[in-house]
């Protein structure tokens, strides 16, 4: 076995998924199918023999569902996991729960035409496995939100401040940890999390239920207000615009930027122009380099810039590139980012 070989386990009650995806993995350079199992209970004895580098996991399975297993796994033996699940409106929320529990990526599989789908999406599936193998998952325990601070809304000293956050792989957990650690009154925040179109509304609603701040999926024309977090909708770019003393967001279609839509660079560049030194840019865990150049533009316009440190990142790609470009004023571990935002609010 080559040292760089990625060992993959498939846990899925579909024999078609196990057969077709297993064959793809064995044929892919640098990968080996370690084992398959019809559910997590059946996987246990196989895991005791040899541990995989990546697990491809279904959500709905007999005896134990994938989310329950994922929580146990991340608490006992954090391992890169790619969710491969049939999604409905209900299932979308379930898959978001899985991502919050530590899944690196989610692949949507249809109820019909599954064999053809797996064959057609082979490149995407294998790329997700490769990216997962480079990640370093860890169990994150979000802190309880601090007590609400008694302060009037929209104080003059905070209305002109904007905090822009960009994140990708591992970002669902990271954002939950940061946002649940904030008091109710903080500068308005705009966020790009690389996420498919059908996920962002449910993701924002879930965070809103956990946080002292208001969290919502951004709509065109939404105002950026103290205590409000606007998350870019999947499949659309989000930009910050200024009208007098007020900030609003503009939501638009267009080509992908750095292979992403929404793109962190698109948001950060607009923040650089609209807010300049009144902004703070934060780049967190993620694959690739989206956001690094935009963060550099923010810094050039006088914004304070922060990158998540390597030790606390699931994937140290985007922050590494920003640091390489000397676009960062401060490098912080994940658990120090919420306190840093709190200092900005003062």
UniProtKB/TrEMBL annotation:
Q: GO biological process: what's one of them?
A: chemotaxis
Tell me what reaction this enzyme catalyses. Answer: L-glutaminyl-[protein] + H2O = L-glutamyl-[protein] + NH4(+); [protein]-L-glutamate 5-O-methyl ester + H2O = L-glutamyl-[protein] + methanol + H(+)
Record's subcellular location: Cytoplasm
Q: What is its EC number?
A: 3.1.1.61, 3.5.1.44
Residues covered by the Response regulatory domain: 7-124
Keyword hit for Phosphoprotein: yes
Which residues are annotated as active site? 168, 194, 290
Q: Which region ranges are annotated with the description Disordered?
A: 135-155
Q: Name one GO molecular function term.
A: protein-glutamate methylesterase activity
NCBIfam families assigned to the protein according to its UniProt record, in alphabetical order = PRK00742.1 (NF001965), PRK12555.1 (NF009206)
Q: What is known of its domains?
A: Contains a C-terminal catalytic domain, and an N-terminal region which modulates catalytic activity.
Function, as annotated, reads: Involved in chemotaxis. Part of a chemotaxis signal transduction system that modulates chemotaxis in response to various stimuli. Catalyzes the demethylation of specific methylglutamate residues introduced into the chemoreceptors (methyl-accepting chemotaxis proteins or MCP) by CheR. Also mediates the irreversible deamidation of specific glutamine residues to glutamic acid.
The entry's protein name is Protein-glutamate methylesterase/protein-glutamine glutaminase
Q: Which organism is it from?
A: Pseudomarimonas arenosa
According to the entry, what is the taxonomic lineage of the organism? Bacteria, Pseudomonadati, Pseudomonadota, Gammaproteobacteria, Lysobacterales
